[in-house]
Amino acid sequence: MSWAQILDLAGAISLLLGATLALVGAIGLVRLPDFFARMHAATKPQTLGLLLILLGLALTVRTWASVATLLIVVGAQALTAPVTAHILGRAGYRTGIVEDGLLHHDELGAAYRRMQEQDRQREQS
Q1: Which of 32, 50, 60, 119 would bridge 11 by S-S if both were Cys, CB 3.0 to 4.6 A apart?
Q2: What's the pLDDT score for residue 21?
Q3: Does this entry carry the keyword Repeat (predicted)?
């Protein structure tokens, strides 16, 4: 078996695993019960699935131009996915979609209530 065949096989396996993870993330997005669980399904498996798909493409195509482009996509995904998840989590918390009974540890609650109280006081004065 030559190196090209080994890289093609590794690329195919990586593409298949990435597509499977993306499918699992999509199913989790539809089937999971609450906001944070859905947010987790939308970010974690989707991101790893995309990274595996891009790795599979890099192993299959094997040109420097395409690998450089794929590295830019990997960097953009690695930078934007955590920020997006953080912003979605805070927005969900602030809009009240999150069920308080499902939170095990709420570090944001006291600060958020304090901020709401300050806003109310400013509106009254």
Answers
A1: 60
A2: 94
A3: no
Q: Residues 20, 27, 108, CA angle at the centre, nearest 5°?
A: 110
Residue pair 18/1 in contact (Cβ under 8 Å)? The answer is no
Q: Where are the alpha helices (DSSP H) in 1-125?
A: 3-31, 35-61, 64-95, 108-124
User: In which domain, by residue range, is 74 found?
Assistant: 3-124
Per-residue b/e over 40-49, b at no fewer than 16 CB within 10 Å? Answer: bbbbbbbbbb
- Least confident stretch, 18-32, 69-83, 92-106: 92-106
Q: In whole angstroms, what separates CA 62 from the centre of its chain?
A: 27
Would you give the DSSP letter of residue 32?
-
Domains contained in the chain, number: 1
